[in-house]
Amino acid sequence: MKTIDARDIPCPKPLILTRQALASLEINEKLEVLINDKLSYANITDFLKDIGLEFTVNGLNFIITKNKEINGQTELLSNGVENKTVIVIVDKNYMGSDNKDLGSLLLKAFLDAIKYSNPKPKTVYFYNEGVLLINDKAYKKILEELRESQISLKFCGACLKFFEIDTLVAFNEHANMLSIIEAQANARTIIRI
Description:
four-stranded mixed beta sheet, 22% strand, 193 residues, Translation Initiation Factor IF3, single chain, five-stranded parallel beta sheet, alpha/beta, 7 helices, Hypothetical Protein Ychn, Chain: A
């Protein structure tokens, strides 16, 4: 069994190391991945569920069985991102560049309206100061309505940690830079605020 020691390695590198190691395994070979970071744990768990590999966990560590052939490694590269989707990128807590008060009003109106758009975005990715919306009472109802309308919300885990608000977001809504890059690369349309 091959072992990847990704303890104390910042996100998204543990996921990248895991994907690289899986690409070199034969069917039914096992991979042990050692981590000590909850964000990396969530990233790897989501990835493994997306591509359908069997795994067990002990604390934050994984034993992964490559129980199936992975189609030309495309599943390893795409991390389950559907091709030709519409995504929204929010990297600040206002819209535009000059007047932040007006920009806040515009962003609220934009996020409120996208649930009615056609096509409706599949996912809204928040990073940098965009993650601060999770802690802003003015956006609480809007974000909940987006979830209810089947729009996925993903927040950069490193950004949440930087602003010390990572406990405000469920781990299934955490994202990493690799997943954000792949979502943009595979999207049909990117709407950037």
